[in-house]
Every structure is written in structure tokens, then in C-alpha cells.
Write a structure and sequence with these properties.
Blueprint: H1 2-9, H2 24-27, H3 33-43, E1 48-52, E2 55-59, H4 62-66, H5 72-89, E3 96-99, H6 121-133, E4 138-141, E5 148-152, E6 155-159, E7 173-179, E8 184-190, E9 198-201, E10 207-210
Parallel strand pairs: 2-3, 3-4, 4-6
Antiparallel strand pairs: 1-2, 5-6, 7-8, 9-10
Helix pairs in contact: 5-6
Length: 211
């Protein structure tokens, strides 16, 4: 699987950056020191951030957020990273956007704990407090193998369906997200309906297309 991922990703246009997010199929829903070691040796950091065109993006290993019982120090390190990273970057960013595999919740920040469906409240609240403090624009996740949409105030909570096996009504596909200075637009496309070009509107209303 690792070799196939590397083979496919190598076919991307060299101008398209690839950022990986850790999921339960990579390190488990209850990650261990060994599963984290193997992942990091193959793929590098599992908690990191980057800036692009004036917006700040933060990527987290949500398995650590879901159940850090075997690696409690990893949760502490993750929280320290989130706090220091957002404190340093969000004041100057047009948008702050988080990516991770497991959702924070289904419909509300008060959703009760539900096994491996989403992150438990005791750790969910820690992450949400930082996202709210820094007025994050959205959190993009997966895990459910189906699409689901909610929000926390003005913060988007987007769960995207799978490239592989779907469990909901939506087909296998991917989500195209457009980040503008004043808003975020997103749309899910089935694999049979992918657009040939992506139209981006400039700040003054003119459109440009990216192949």
C-alpha cells in the first residue's frame, strides 16, 4: 500500500503540493508507540502546519485525539503544538483551517461520546477552544466514508466521503475546496463527475481556470 501510494502520488504535477493526514488505518484508533514510529519513519511528521497564499493550515493526527491511552504523552505534545502554532500564525492569516481524519463531532459540540465515531468531549473541548480562540474558518475531516455537514458558530465542520468504499448515499469521490479572502467554497464530486477544470474567481470577480 505504501509503495502504491508513492507510485500514484508521483504522478501529480510537480506544482501541486501533497500533504498527508494520518488515519486509523495508518496507526489505529488507539495508536501505540510502535504504530506511530512506523508511520513517522515512512511519512514524516503527523502533526504539522503550512501556509499557502495568506492562509494557515494545520494537520493533526486525530487518532491521538480519539484515544491516547497508550501514548498519553503524545496528546500532551499535540496540544502544546496546536497552542503554540495557532498563537504564532493565526493573527496574520486570512483563514485558519484544520485537517484531520476523525471528526470533532457530528452535529454539535455537545454531542455525546460515541465509540470511534468522533473525538470524545474531554479532548474535543480542548481543540475547539483553540479553534474558537483563533477564529478558525473550518475543520475538514473524513473517517465516516460519507459526507456530513455541520458548523460551530461560523466555523465549518465538513466530513468528506471516501475515494474508496462509500457507506452513505454519496459515491466514491473527492472534495474540491476553494479558499478566497472572504470565504471558503467547497463541493463534493463523485469519481465519474470530476470536472476537467476548476474555476477560481479573483477578488474583483474575474474568473480563471486551473486544469
Amino acid at each position: 500500500q505504501h509503495s502504491e501510494l508513492m507510485r500514484i502520488s508521483a504522478q501529480l504535477d510537480h506544482n501541486i503540493p501533497l500533504y498527508l493526514t494520518t488515519g486509523n488505518c495508518d496507526v489505529g484508533n488507539t495508536p501505540s508507540a510502535e504504530s506511530l514510529r512506523i508511520y513517522r519513519e515512512k511519512f514524516g511528521n503527523d502533526n504539522y502546519s503550512f501556509d499557502f497564499h495568506g492562509s494557515h493550515f494545520i494537520v493533526l493526527n486525530s487518532s491521538i485525539c480519539l484515544d491516547p491511552s497508550e501514548v498519553p504523552e503524545e496528546w500532551d505534545s499535540l496540544v502544546d503544538f496546536v497552542r503554540s502554532d495557532l498563537d504564532a500564525h493565526s493573527p496574520t492569516s486570512k483563514h485558519t483551517i484544520m485537517f484531520m481524519h476523525h471528526p470533532l463531532f457530528a452535529d454539535s459540540a455537545d454531542d455525546p461520546n460515541r465509540d470511534i465515531r468522533y473525538i470524545p468531549r474531554e479532548r474535543r473541548s480542548v481543540l475547539l477552544s483553540q479553534l474558537r480562540k483563533h477564529e478558525a474558518s473550518g475543520v475538514f475531516t473524513g473517517h465516516w466514508h460519507e459526507n456530513h455537514y455541520s458548523s460551530d458558530g461560523d466555523m465549518l465542520m465538513i466530513i468528506s466521503g471516501p475515494v474508496g468504499y462509500p457507506l452513505g448515499d454519496d459515491p466514491s469521490g473527492l472534495r474540491i475546496v476553494k479558499v478566497y479572502d472572504d470565504r471558503i467554497e467547497h463541493e463534493y464530486f463523485g469519481m465519474d463527475d470530476l470536472p476537467n477544470t476548476v474555476e477560481l474567481k479573483s477578488a474583483i470577480g474575474r474568473a480563471s481556470s486551473t486544469h
